[in-house]
Amino acid sequence: MGFLRVKKSEDLGGSSADPTAPLLEVDNLHVEFRIEDGTVRAVNGLSYTLGRGETLAILGESGSGKSVSAQAVMGILDTPPGFVTQGSVKFRGVDLLALNKKSKTYDHVVPEVRGTRIAMVFQDALTALNPVYTVGWQIGEMFRVHQGASRKEAKEKAIEMMERVKIPSARERINSYPHEFSGGMRQRVMIAMALSMDPDVIIADEPTTALDVTVQSQIMELLAELQRETGMGMILITHDLAVVADVADRVVVMYAGREMETAEIDDIFHLPSHPYTLGLMESIARPDVHVDRLTPIPGTPPDLLAIPSGCPFHPRCTYATERCPKEVPELESVNGSHSSACFYWKEVQVEL
Amino acid sequence: MSSEQRTDEPILRVVNLKKYFPVTRGIIFKKTIGTVQAVDDVSFDLYPGESLGLVGESGCGKTTTARTILRLDEPTSGEAYFQGRDIFKMSRSELRDLRSEITVIFQDPYASLNPRMTVGDIIAEPWSIHGGVPRKDRKNKTQELLEVVGLNPNNVSRYPHQFSGGQRQRIGIARAIAVDPKIIICDEPVSALDVSVQAQVVNLLEDIQKEFGVSYLFIAHDLAIVRHIVDRLEVMYLGKIVEEGDEFQVYDHTAHPYTQALLSAVPIPDPRAKNRGNRIMLEGDVPSPTNPPSGCRFRTRCWKAQDVCAGEIPVLEDRGQGHPVACYFPGVEFSASGAPPTTTA
Ligand SMILES: Nc1ncnc2c1ncn2[C@@H]1O[C@H](COP(=O)(O)OP(=O)(O)OP(=O)(O)O)[C@@H](O)[C@H]1O
Ligand SMILES: Nc1ncnc2c1ncn2[C@@H]1O[C@H](COP(=O)(O)OP(=O)(O)OP(=O)(O)O)[C@@H](O)[C@H]1O
Ligand SMILES: [Mg+2]
Ligand SMILES: [Mg+2]
Fold first, then answer.
1. Cβ–ligand 2 contact at B60 (below 6 Å)
2. Which of residues 54-73 of A touch B (CB under 8 A)?
């Protein structure tokens, strides 16, 4: 159907978009929440680059700053109390953040990328969808709002999108309400909404955490297929190492808002170079092998109001020396694009 | 250890258990418009000191099975015996005693602990109901229990919100073992925890079993974690058990198409396993339990289904696989590791 002209990324921001630049470049991003009890330093210097057709996984446990970093990139950070205090986010070379001289924080200044060029799929599809509107209306709204489509056109587009995400008998189910759909179908509706504007980047924030494994594999396969079709880049936010192994090209491992290690998928699993990554790898159960005892990471995840000094992982780390609570280890290149923020990455590799 | 080899008596025996919930419409004039067959003809035995897994996808009836055994929900029909005594015929006071023999650890460590009680009071509460520990000894005993679960004994007067998720789950475990139960029902005890903490809690549960000899009924949907804790498994689909066996039978000689699909969907944390080549992609969703398919309930999503599957419900029995499976066309061509399974004797 030719009546809708999807906005080309090259038009973005009027002029300066560079078609040869990477889809997304996040550099040294810092986000904090200023709340009564103090300052929650949720993201402390996150950097990554996402290319066309690439899948980058942001891996980390609860509270490590995964969702907050995505909110800052999308421009949907809860401000106040949340502020970007440092860093840049470039979409096709255009910086989406600008320094606010008065507050000395950064504002998201290119709202038109939101939902159209960069789209997001949220973890909990039931709360993210509006219970009082039909799924068809909610998908169609994207076309009405962003492209001025008529009701009738929007409805046809919604059916088309529902078919694309493989919701069976889309035409009959267009007037269903979210609660009439199963968890997996609701997640498909969310994906259909995210894809409706043909985005260049999709951020999937734990898209399958609430779903059963058989449905999880359907959804991940669907996302991969759509990605192959359109060449969009994907940021996959997850705490599940196994999902990462299945779908990602690159991984950023976060702990307490910091980047611990980043590498190509194969290196993360076969040459982990940070004690935290190694600890995760050893503690996780596998369905395909029998072991008598799991090897947990000792201790508890950090309190973000009181992040340990130096390397935030040092209280739980078996490699830690007296240097670790005193100095923050910088991200250091291990080999090519593989980097680790540990003074002792060579020792970690020796273990393997 | 498969059940055939056991000569001792099961500590818990569940026979043809059914639990149906009415589905009603209308607020003032409630009208029953159907029933949810949440648990439909489930039988299994749990032996002393054994860990039995109950696995299956959301809504298949795992929690309802556990609640009915504890009489938190009344059964529709069937029998359940604890040490030979019929649970479904127990009086109120007998039930109170039963609940110190069978205790529960719940899924959500945030919702399951009373936020207004101190950790000490939470752990000691079962004693004020069931007795067993004199009042003057309770503080000492509480501190002992905190030590057993790896928490600082000085924490007795703290409140749940001052603990992390993994620590709260330990408090729940301390409470569950406080009355020296024979059976602990663990309903998704680690699924709300961070991966680095899951392994700590699983190891703790194993240590407790070694030390106190309790039996576990371990409910979970995470088949990777389950593998490390259970001796035997019951796989459920839509209220029915479809396959039963020990760890190696179910994971390495998987016979029911549903179990095969379920296992093949569990991602393996190794990028080199990506092309395992035996991934089974199921079509569609789990059908509604108010209107389950006739015959085999899995047949609507099964690639092996034939006419016979819509007829009689396949019974759970050994069909030459070496362990019971409720399928007319069982096969052992699948194993969780992707390696060709060795043939069962
Ligand atoms: N609106 C807010 N106000 C105050 N603090 C916040 C707010 N949103 C997030 N935070 C804090 O920021 C930190 C990072 O949160 P974030 O949601 O990014 O974690 P996450 O890695 O996505 O975790 P999960 O896996 O649990 O989703 C947390 O400590 C959280 O409490
Ligand atoms: N009190 C109730 N009234 C009506 N239906 C119920 C009730 N409790 C459970 N059910 C239904 O019974 C079925 C089985 O539910 P149950 O909670 O036992 O599943 P489960 O296997 O524990 O799932 P999960 O993994 O999501 O916890 C579901 O279809 C559920 O909706
Ligand atoms: Mg999150
Ligand atoms: Mg349940």
1. yes
2. 61-62
**CA atoms B257, B262, B263, B267: torsion sign:** positive
Phi, psi of B225 (to 5 degrees): -65, -45
Looking at domain B3-237, which CATH architecture does it have? 3-Layer(aba) Sandwich (3.40)
How much is the CA Rg of chain B, to the nearest whole Å? 21
Domain locations along chain B: 3-237
Question: Hey, what domains does chain A have and what are their CATH numbers?
Answer: 24-244 (3.40.50.300), 250-350 (no CATH)
Count of residues in chain A: 352
pLDDT band at B281 (very low <50, low <70, confident <90, very high): confident
Q: Which ligand has the nearest atom to the CA of B24?
A: 2
pLDDT tens-place string over residues A110-146: 778 887 899 998 877 677 888 899 999 999 988 998 8
Residue B294 confidence (pLDDT): 93
3-class state of residue A21 by DSSP: coil
B271 and A287 in contact by Cβ < 8 A? no
Query: Is 50 exceeded by the pLDDT of residue B105?
Result: yes
Ligand 2, pocket-test mutation among B64, B186, B238, B286, most atoms within 8 A of CB: B64
Q: Going by C-beta distance under 8 Å and a sequence separation of 6 or more, which residues neighbour residue B89? A: none
B228/A285 touch (CB, cutoff 8 Å), yes or no: yes
Q: According to the model, what pLDDT value does residue B335 have?
A: 67
Ligand 2 within 6 A of CB of B39: no
Per-state percent for chain A, helix, strand, coil, to nearest 5: 35, 25, 40
β-strand pairing of B77-82 with B12-25: antiparallel
Distance CA A185, CA A218 (A): 11
Q: Which residue's CA is the nearest one to ligand 2's atom 7?
A: B21
Mean residue pLDDT across chain B: 87
Ligand 1: residue of A29, A35, A41, A66 to mutate (most ligand atoms within 8 A of CB) is A66
Tell me, what's the pLDDT at B333?
66
- Could you give the C-alpha distances from A135 to A116, A338, B66, B320, in angstroms and in order? 19, 43, 36, 48
Residues of B in contact with A306 (CB under 8 A): none
Does ipTM top 0.90? no
Compute, in angstroms, the gap from residue A68 CA to the centroid of ligand 3. Answer: 7
**Residue B224: which of A183, A287, A301 has the nearest Cβ?**
A287
Interface contact flag, B199 A281, Cβ < 8 Å: no
